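stage 2 :: seqdesign
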């Protein structure tokens, strides 16, 4: 079983904010397949689906970003999912809007959602798809910046990155993550 975790914050207030780009990528995948997040346990919304004989768990934690691991850790335990079979999709300030970058493991890089996953999974060895949101160009504090919507001039590149992240997830459903990294990081 593979697990796809989109990181974000629950609620209408945060729906279109930069911090919710992980949710947006999962939403794109749900739309492509006509799936719905139809279960609500473990402090998250999720569904279990099948692709080419492979079980796929799609999750959007409902704990708020900084506590995402409180949802993902128990879900992974319940379904017996190894960290190597998890991909977390989330926003990255260090990548420009429109870019994505895949990694197999690493630290949290200051991202509190990833810090929470590391804490609750007990390892840094899980896959990541980082979607660029850029840094504020003015003196806007980062905490305010990530909780604001994208600017109109970013819309096209952001939508392209969401589609590219969903393409990478689809590829991972069929191939080893290292092959997907080579394909999408190139």
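stage 2 :: out
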């Amino acid at each position: 079983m593979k697990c796809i975790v989109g990181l974000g914050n629950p609620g209408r207030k945060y729906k279109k904010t930069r911090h919710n780009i992980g949710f947006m990528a999962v939403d794109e995948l749900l739309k492509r397949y006509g799936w719905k997040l139809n279960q609500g346990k473990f402090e998250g919304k999720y569904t279990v689906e099948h692709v080419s004989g492979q079980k796929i768990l799609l999750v959007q934690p409902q704990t708020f970003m900084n506590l995402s691991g409180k949802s993902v850790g128990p879900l992974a335990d319940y379904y017996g999912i190894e960290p190597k079979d998890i991909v977390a999709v989330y926003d990255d300030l260090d990548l420009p809007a429109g870019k994505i970058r895949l990694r197999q493991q690493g630290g949290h890089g200051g991202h509190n959602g990833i810090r929470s996953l590391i804490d609750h999974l007990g390892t840094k060895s899980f896959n990541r798809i980082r979607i660029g949101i850029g840094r504020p160009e003015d003196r806007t504090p980062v905490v305010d910046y990530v909780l604001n919507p994208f600017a109109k001039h970013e819309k096209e590149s952001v939508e392209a990155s969401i589609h590219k992240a969903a393409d990478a997830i689809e590829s991972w459903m069929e191939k080893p993550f290292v092959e997907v990294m080579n394909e999408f990081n190139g």
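stage 3 :: structure notes
- The chain has one domain: 2-185.
- The CA atoms of residues 44 and 61 lie 4 Å apart.
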